[in-house]
Design a protein that fits this description.
Domain HTH tetR-type: 6-66
Radius of gyration: 20 Å
Protein name: TetR/AcrR family transcriptional regulator
Order of helices and strands: HHHHHHHHH
DNA-binding region: 29-48
InterPro entries: Homeodomain-like_sf (IPR009057), HTH_TetR (IPR001647)
Keywords: DNA-binding
Strand content: under 5%
Structural class: mainly alpha
Helix content: over 70%
Distance between the termini: 79 Å
């Protein structure tokens, strides 16, 4: 009898991610992942207790991917980096955007606070944001995320006019970021 094929935890997560990317995270089942790997379900249960643990691992991968996309931009302008990464993510992974942004789920909630803290640290390196306290940076970040989330959802759902390309979206995002920062400085000086 030939030996059973072994799969790493990463290979299993990648197979589940591919399912989530095209069908949504709720479509991940142990059987579908096993089928994608050409395997029985046994190797999956060696690495994960249940499908929810596997889905959480996929959510962790999505968060890592989105953070990587932000830091990959590295323009020196925090909001541009966040905005461009968000728009690119929406264009490349619209199903995941709809899953993690438009549907209530527990998978992403664990990362919200951590991501906010990481982004504030990233914002502190931006010269245009000097002089703001951590609380002010969190407020600015929240306002920008609210705007960016709307634009991202519009991209993921194909709601923008066809002539509205990435450059147009970046321009609008840059303008809104500047408006939010100016308004925050004006309020701070009052």
């Amino acid at each position: 009898m030939p030996p059973k094929t072994k799969f790493t935890k990463e290979q299993i997560i990648n197979a589940a991610f591919e399912i989530a990317k095209s069908e949504g995270i709720d479509s991940i089942t142990i059987r579908k992942v096993a089928d994608r790997l050409g395997s029985s379900i046994a190797p999956i249960y060696v690495n994960f207790n249940d499908v929810d643990e596997l889905k959480q691992a996929v959510a962790n991968k999505v968060v890592q991917l989105s953070q990587h996309m932000i830091y990959e931009e590295n323009s020196g302008n925090t909001f541009r980096d966040i905005g461009v990464a968000s728009l690119r993510f929406a264009q490349e992974y619209p199903v995941l955007i709809r899953d993690f942004v438009m549907k209530p789920n527990d998978y992403f909630q664990n990362h919200e606070k951590e991501m906010g803290s990481d982004l504030v640290e990233h914002m502190k390196k931006d010269a245009t944001l000097e002089g703001f306290t951590d609380d002010e940076l969190m407020t600015i970040l929240f306002k920008m995320r609210a705007f960016q989330m709307g634009l991202t959802i519009m991209v993921a759902n194909g709601l923008l006019p066809k002539e509205f390309d990435l450059d147009n979206m970046i321009k609008i995002s840059d303008d809104v970021a500047e408006d939010v920062m100016i308004a925050t400085r004006v309020r701070k000086e009052k």
